[in-house]
Amino acid sequence: MKRNHFLKTLGLSGILVSIFPIKSFAFIQNKFTRDELIGKGNPNLLGEKFKMQKDTYASFLKMKAEASKENISIELVSAYRSFDKQKQIFENKYRLFLSEGLTPLEAINKIIEYSTIPGTSRHHWGTDIDIIDANAPRPESVLEEEHFYGNGPYCKLKEWLNINATSFGFYEVYTNNPDRKGFKHEPWHFSYASISKPMLEEYKKLDLKKVFKEENILGNEYFTNDFINQYRNEHIMDINPELL
Fold it and tell me: What kind and span of H or E run contains 52?
């Protein structure tokens, strides 16, 4: 390497390190471990009952404060979810559907209408939230599409989010685009794009079949290559384009 080029490179590195701490610089390079990406790491999370990554949490609090000016009280229903929690949800449903007479593949396909296979949930990242309006009448089951449209109790929240959520960095994940495949529309599910986008880029590099086998997920023997490729394309990647 020529001396001038070396000095320029060294100078640029010094500037970057002086601006960004080493830990932050690693984040800029989008270095996420396999365990972090599948919800098994030890992320630095903030929040009370429901937790999320630091920057996600800060933006959420700002959005919540702004919405309160319109008499909307944004309430978290879900945020970070560990691999073990998702595994419990998935396997409980799997056993239930088998007991009701479904075949393993029928059970799996029924589960993934709304629930993710463990290790594939965006909630593993601490960037995604499920939200409702605590000031609205509370239905028995809060996360239902009908509650966010028409005369539903969360219409005011949904209308406000449609206008304002992106200004705080949050985007609806599973939109009501009729051409979208994968998970059904979730008007309550939003993602903090500045962190979830680079995490998705790293996540795409994982060998999901290997992950499912290593983590001994119930029913993983039915996850064929074709099934995994379709699941990846439709359930993981067929989302709001703003999050790709």
Answer: strand 52-53
Neighbouring C-alpha atoms within 13 Å toward the C-beta of 240: 20
Structure token digits, residue 215: 């983590």
Residue with tokens 């998702």: 86
| Structural domains of the chain, ranges and CATH numbers in brackets | 1-29 (no CATH), 32-243 (3.30.1380.10)
pLDDT digits (tens, 9 = 90+) for 56-96: 999 999 999 999 999 999 999 999 999 999 999 999 999 99
Phi then psi dihedrals of residue 32, to 5 deg:
-125, 135
41 vs 19, 44, 87, 108, CA distance in Å?
27, 10, 15, 26
Please report how many Cα atoms fall inside a 13 Å half-sphere around the Cα of residue 78, on the Cβ side. Answer: 18
Q: Whole-prediction pTM value?
A: 0.86
In angstroms, the CA 102 to CA 116 distance is 18
Q: Which residues pair with 191 in a beta bridge?
A: 128, 171
Tokens of 111: 């589960």
- In angstroms, the CA 185 to CA 183 distance is 7
Cα–Cα–Cα angle for 46, 158, 48, rounded to 5 degrees: 15
